[in-house]
Design goal:
The protein is of the alpha/beta class. The strands form seven sheets. It has an eight-stranded mixed sheet with strand order 4-3-5-2-6-7-1-8, with helices on both faces. Strands 9-16-13-10-12-11 form a six-stranded parallel sheet, with helices on both faces. A five-stranded mixed β-barrel has the order 18-19-20-22-21. Helix 5 packs parallel to helix 12, helix 12 (about 375-385) packs across helix 13 and helix 15 (about 440-450) runs antiparallel to helix 19 (about 520-530). The longest helix has 17 residues, at about 220-235. The chain starts with 16 loop residues before the first helix and ends in a 27-residue tail after the last helix.
């Protein structure tokens, strides 16, 4: 090892170093489970590195953690970073020929594996904090397992985790994705940190609104600030405060005027120098306001108390609408435990949870793996670069959701990054080399050609840092005037990346189009990244927009962009159950620039269909869902018009037709025949008629024409010739009754046809009539045609029910016959003039 064992910090990890070294020597892979504060991030790499062996590469999920780990290990060796210990993160590299331990981010490791799968010169790879389940961490693990199996069986891989969920990683590192493998990597467990942490529950005094998107209840932040003041008064040492994002950090910082401590910020939007300064001991007491970057893999010195707001910010993707964003969610129990552990790294400490113990018990046990809900476009490009476009056969801890992966692969094809077979293209390799999300890489490369390299780099740097608000152009000007260090550093990196690329079009230089204003340049670059989010106002001056992808969206009230006809939307979110997305960040466009930005979505098509409630025949210029221009077609194809009318009937129902009494009764008779006898009598239900090509449309060309169609004639044509002549026999329109009348049969209920007839016309009728073998339900009527009785058994009615009917009715209708024995009385349609 690079340092004598007795010179290592006296941390719990020292006791198990021989076990870790032996496990790697014997099996080649191992899993180390070690709680926060045990020294796994900095002590283990020093123990694994040798002066004459290959390099130890330590992969961290975050840049700030990578730099901090390298700085700590270099300090233990009494050196500056860049000697025997160095680091490489995006945009910052400090290594030398002497470097034996190199700390990188997992994203850098994935890029390196693509360029050099054998990892020449590397002896050991340590995947730190793999339990956090970032996409790059999952990919690095899967790629390393394949590298060991196919190229480098001598490469040692150690996965470290602060939680006890080690079996999954041990199984994968053992070389099998089988849930019951033949062998797993050995698991080594370190003892917990030495210092106890006193847990204190500090819920807000009143119920709060749940977070949505990036919105956090202001009352929670006020409560966090009050809890910080309490923590400062409650004991000594620095206070580390966990908040979901930089915006909340700024808010809480503004709520702490006059505290007897230096207020320091620590988040991903800062420059590396600012982050590193927050991790150095202060000269006075400090309050460190941090995001999840302080959750693991590093120690914030001097901390004796942790105040946890209980929220995390994670990526979410609405694949149906193409909207991806960061959202605020409750922290998991495992993450809350890790955060609390920061208070006990150097001495006994205390943690103030800004929620109740009952709420804590309902929190998810573990953080949700990023692969389950995030945008997988970059992930899919990495799979394609590796030669596994669908991820099949890779040792991934969780398989990507099929729908999300299909959406990501579709985006890559649209960007030209992959072919139809899913294999990476030369353009895909160019996009990957930029070190950005593929959409932003495309915006940088093509934006440099169209808007100028400097402007493209500046806008993409803003988009990548998610440091925009409402009006992107205003945010861009603000970044320029304030000389934001982190933004300037990223702009330099992107400009350098452009300098390494071959020009996409040799006829154009990187100064971009002349005469393109900054406003339009910003909109163009955003549109190149998100062409489906190019949007046009529904009407002049409206806050309502339609995106090219088909999603409706609205600007916030009071937005500086209100009244802009065209927008390129950089960020939008949609509340659960909401029909309209909310535009969070956008830049202005005009139609010409919109057509350039979303060129892949432009099309001219002939459309003949049922649109907005009628037949439309037009030639349309479209930008995705946005209609740019349309022209009426005077002589549309009759077959397509007929298809449109039938589609209208399917969508809006048969009520578009005129159902005369004859047509309705004919349909009811056919329904009875089908229900009673089955095939070949046709099914005339709504569902069947909506699908069948039964209707003779004749010369119908629009909605109004449907009301003039001969529906009865079309229904008769449904009858096969074998039964067409039997309809009156099977379902007669009328039935004769004893009086000589022919009474209409009501087939409204196919299971029970009804014959409504005056009672006097049925005298002498003992047997209930039948149609197609089904007893008819008789509705026996009074002389005023009001119901007196309902029966399907006349013989029983005459004996049991008729005497009561006679007693009640003979006084009310004395001019009508009410004989004592109706079975022997002649039926009649007339009154009894003698009144007897």
């Amino acid at each position: 090892m690079l340092i004598a064992a007795d010179a290592l910090p006296d941390l719990p990890i020292r006791a198990i170093l021989p076990d870790v070294i032996a496990a790697l020597a014997n099996a080649g892979t191992a899993v180390l489970v070690a709680p926060p504060g045990t020294g796994k991030t900095t002590v283990v790499p020093l123990a694994l590195a040798t002066a004459d062996g290959g390099r130890v590469v330590v992969a961290e999920p975050r840049r700030v953690a990578a730099r901090a780990a390298a700085r700590r290990m270099a300090a233990l060796l009494g050196e500056e970073v860049g000697g025997r210990v160095g680091y490489t993160v995006r945009g910052d590299r400090r290594v030398s020929a002497r470097t034996r331990i190199e700390v990188v981010t997992t994203g850098v490791l994935v890029r390196r594996l693509h360029r050099d799968p054998e990892l020449a010169g590397t002896a050991v790879v340590v995947l730190d904090e793999c339990h956090e389940r970032h996409l790059d961490s999952d990919l690095a693990l899967a790629f390393l397992v394949e590298v060991r199996a196919a190229l480098r069986p001598d490469l040692h891989v150690l996965a470290t985790s602060a939680t006890a969920e080690a079996d999954r990683f041990a199984t994968l590192l053992g070389g099998s994705a089988d849930p019951q493998p033949h062998g797993s990597a050995p698991v080594v467990t370190a003892a917990a940190a030495l210092h106890p942490v006193d847990v204190r529950w500090c819920p807000p005094p009143q119920p709060l609104a749940a977070p949505h998107g990036l919105r956090v209840d202001q009352r929670l932040l006020t409560h966090v600030a009050a809890t910080v003041r309490h923590a400062l008064a409650d004991g000594d040492g620095d206070v580390l405060v966990f908040l979901p994002g930089a915006r909340e950090i700024g808010t809480v910082s503004g709520l702490l005027p006059g505290v007897d401590a230096e207020v320091v910020q620590l988040h991903g939007r800062q420059t590396g120098a600012a982050q590193d300064a927050a991790l150095r001991p202060g000269t006075s007491r400090r309050v460190v306001l941090a995001t999840a970057v302080a959750e693991s893999s590093l120690t914030v010195p001097g901390v004796r108390a942790v105040v946890d707001a209980g929220l995390s910010r994670v990526p979410r993707m609405d694949h149906a609408r193409g909207l991806g964003a960061l959202v605020t969610v409750p922290v998991s129990r495992a993450a809350a435990t890790q955060r609390a552990g920061r208070a006990g790294r150097e001495a006994p400490g205390r943690v103030y949870h800004c929620w109740s113990q009952a709420q804590h018990d309902r929190l998810p046990a573990q953080p949700e793996p990023e692969i389950t809900a995030a945008d997988l476009t970059g992930f899919a490009l990495d799979l394609a670069l590796w030669g596994h476009p669908d991820g099949a056969g890779l040792a991934l801890p969780d398989a990507p959701p099929p729908g999300a992966l299909r959406a990501a692969m579709g985006t890559l094809r649209t960007l030209g990054a992959t072919g139809e077979d899913g294999r990476v293209t030369a353009r895909g390799r160019l996009l990957a080399d930029v070190g950005l999300h593929p959409r932003l890489a495309r915006a940088l490369l093509d934006g440099a050609r169209l808007a100028g390299a400097r402007r493209a780099a500046e806008i993409v740097a803003l988009l990548d840092a998610d440091r925009t608000a409402d009006d992107l152009v205003a945010a861009w000007r603000r970044a320029r005037s304030e000389r934001d260090g982190a933004w300037i550093a990223e702009v330099r990196r992107l400009t350098a990346a452009l300098d390494r690329q071959e020009p996409t079009d040799p006829t154009q230089d990187r100064r971009g189009r002349t005469g393109l204003t900054d406003d339009l340049a910003a909109g163009l670059v955003v549109g190149l990244a998100y062409p489906e989010r190019v949007a046009r106002a529904r009407e002049a001056g409206s806050r309502a927009y339609l995106m090219a992808g088909g999603t409706a969206a609205e600007l916030n009230g009071g937005s500086a962009l209100a009244g802009t006809t065209w927008l390129a939307v950089a960020d939008a979110d949609r509340a659960p159950g909401a029909r309209t997305a909310r535009i969070r960040t956008a830049a202005p466009l005009d139609e010409t620039t919109a057509r350039v930005a979303a060129e892949t979505l432009t099309a001219t098509a002939t459309e003949i269909g049922w649109i907005d409630g009628d037949v439309v025949a037009r030639r349309v210029d479209r930008l995705g869902a946005i209609i740019l221009a349309e022209r009426r077609i005077e002589d549309p194809d009759p077959a397509l018009v007929s298809a449109a009318l039938r589609e209208g009937l399917r969508r809006e129902g048969l009520g578009l037709l005129t159902w005369s009494r004859g047509a309705a009764e004919l349909r009811a008779r056919l329904a009875f025949a089908h229900a009673t006898l089955g095939e070949p009598w046709p099914d005339v239900s709504d569902e069947a008629l909506a699908e069948a090509e039964w209707l003779d449309l004749g010369s119908a060309r629009r909605r109004a024409d449907l009301a003039r169609i001969d529906v009865a004639g079309s229904l008769r044509r449904l009858l096969p010739w074998t039964v067409a002549g039997r309809l009156d026999e099977v379902a007669p329109e009328r039935l004769p009754v004893p009086s000589g009348s022919a009474v209409r049969v009501d087939y409204s209920d196919p299971a029970a046809p009804v014959l409504a007839v005056k009672l006097q016309e049925t005298f002498g009728w003992l047997d209930t009539p039948r149609v197609a073998g089904v007893p008819v339900v008789l509705h026996l009527l009074s002389p005023a045609a009001r119901p007196l009785a309902v029966t399907s058994d006349l013989a029983s009615f005459w004996v049991n029910a008729y005497p009561g009917v006679r007693a009640e009715m003979r006084g009310r209708y004395p001019r009508h016959p009410w004989p004592e024995d109706p079975s022997t009385t002649a039926p009649t349609r007339r009154t009894n003039r003698r009144g007897s």
